[in-house]
Amino acid sequence: MMLRHLLKLIWKRKSRNMMLSLEILLAFVVVFAIAAFALRSYQLYRMPTGFSYQDVWSASLNARNEGGIEADPLIYDKFRQSLKALPEVQEVGFSSFPVYQSSNWTSEFTLREGKRKFVSNLFQISDEFPAVVNMTLAEGRWFSRADDGAAERPVVINRRLAQKLFDGKPALGQVFSENEDDPKKALKQFKVVGVVEEFRSQGEFMSPPNFMLVRHQTGAGEGGLEAIQLKVRPGTPRTFEAALNRQLKLVRNDWSYTISPLADMRTSMIKTQTIPLTVLAVIAAFLLVMVAFGLFGVLWQNTTQRIPEIGLRRAIGADSGHIYGQIIVEQMLLSSGAMAIALLLLVQLPLTGALGDSLNWTVFLMAAALSAGVIYLLSLLCSLYPGWRAARLSPTQALHYE
Fold first, then answer.
1. What is the Cα–Cα distance from 388 to 376, expressed in whole angstroms?
2. What does pLDDT average to in each consecutive run of 10 residues of the chain (402 residues)?
3. How far apart are CA 73 and CA 250, in angstroms?
4. What's the pTM?
5. Up-side HSE of residue 336: CA atoms within 13 Å toward CB?
6. C-beta of residue 78 within 8 angstroms of C-beta of residue 251
7. Which helix (H) or strand (E) holds 60?
C-alpha cells in the first residue's frame, strides 16, 4: 500500500519530475557506455593472446635499398646464423611485422567448396616463429621444410575462423584461394595444416579477429618479413641491445634497426590502448559531479515546496523516520523508472547484435548492474540531506512555512 501511495505522489508531480528523470536517464546511459567499454576491455585483457612475450626481443628491419629485404634471397639465413652466434640468443624467427604494434594486413579469400567468400587477417611467419613465442597448436602441425615447393601454401588458422568457415567440420586439409583484382593473375592456393585456439598480434586489448598464419616463401615476390623475433635466455639485460645492433650491422650495415624487448613493447601498447578509457573515466567523473549538483538542487527545491505537505503529515502522527524514508524512497523509485526506460532502449543493442562482440550479454548485464549501482548510490547521497532537513521540521514550523 505504501509503495502504491508513493507512486501516486510521483505521478501527480510528473511535470516537476520529468526533467529530473531525464537527467538521471542520460547519466545512466553515459555511465553504462563507459562501464561497458571498461568491462569489455577487461574481458579482452583476460583472454589469451596466443603467444608469449617473456624473454623475447624484437628487431624491426628498415631496408633502404631498392627491392627491400627480398632483394637478397639469402638474407634470412644470414641473419639467423649471425644472431644465433650470440650466446644470449636461443632461437631466431621472422614475421611480416612485429607483434604489439598497430599493424594490420587483411585479404579476401574464397573457399573452393561453395565459392564462399570471407575476409581474414594475415600474418606471415617463418618456420621458427612459433617456437620463439611459445605458440601452441590445438590441431594439426606447424610449417617445416617439407612444405617447400608445395602447390598449396600451408596456413594455420585460429579457432574462430575455423568455426566460421567449417561449422564443426574438420578444418585440416581444407583448401581456399586468395581473391585477385587482376583476372590475369593465377589465384594463390592455401591449405589448412593446423589450428590454434587464438592469435591476437596487437596484444591483450585487440578484439578477437579471424586470423591466418601463412608460411613465408623466400623469393615469392610477396614482400619481405620485416621483423626478427629472438628468444633469449632468461635474465638477459637491457644492455644486450647494443650487442644485438652490432651483430645486425655485420649482416647489413646500410639498414637501420629498431630493437626492443617484447615486454617493453607490450607495456607501451597497453598504455596507448588505455588512454581512451582514462579520458572517458575523467569525463564521466566530471559529468557525475555535475549531475550530483543538479540532482541535489532539484531535490532541495522539491523538498522546500513540499514543506506544508510534510507539516500536515507530521501533524497527523507521522514521525521523522517516516518522512526521512519517504523522501529517499521516492527518489529511488524515480531513479528506477528512469533507468528502466534507459534499459529498454539499450537492450536493443545486444538483441540486434549492432555492436557485435563488443557488447555481448555478459558485458551488457555487468555494465547494467554497475551503472544501476552508481546511479542508486548517487541518488541516495543526494537525497540524504534534503530528507534529513525535512524530517527535522516540527509540525508547527512546517504548517506556518511560507
1. 18
2. 49 59 83 90 92 93 66 80 93 92 85 77 92 93 86 91 85 83 65 93 90 81 79 92 92 89 92 86 81 70 60 56 66 81 91 86 94 86 66 56 49
3. 17
4. 0.78
5. 8
6. yes
7. strand 56-62
